[in-house]
Write a structure and sequence with these properties.
113 residues; alpha+beta; Alpha-Beta Plaits; 4-stranded antiparallel β-sheet; 3 helices; 4 strands; 27% helix; 27% strand
């Protein structure tokens, strides 16, 4: 198996900036992702985060409702470290956030652990 195709431990930081939306729906987001019938992302745990847990984006905070103050980190295993798997997970996070009623712009950062 090619190294980029191996299952990879990841940290998924979802942040709603100055809006508390992600922090107040963190459990709902985590539960929805944990209960999806799929094998691309295996949920392990989550925790609320603040300003100290985020790599600041290379854009001005005014472009997205920053700075990153209210968020959640999801930890789990991604099926493979590829643009397709990362894109799929990003789409699931966006859809789940919208279903939870989040309407503010989000900062999404997915990193290998």
């Amino acid at each position: 198996m090619h190294a980029s195709r191996a299952r990879t431990q990841v940290r998924v930081n979802v942040n709603s900036g100055q809006d508390q939306a992600v922090a107040t729906t963190a459990r709902q987001l985590a539960d929805h992702i944990r209960n999806l019938d799929q094998d691309v992302f295996v949920y392990r745990s989550h925790e609320a985060t603040g300003l100290d847990a985020v790599v600041h984006p290379p854009i001005d905070d005014r472009a997205w409702n920053g700075p990153p103050r209210h968020g959640v980190v999801l930890r789990g295993e991604l099926a493979e470290w590829t643009p397709e798997a990362i894109g799929w997970l990003s789409e699931v996070i966006a859809d789940t956030s919208a279903q939870a009623g989040i309407r503010s712009p989000l900062l999404l950062t997915i990193t290998r652990m």
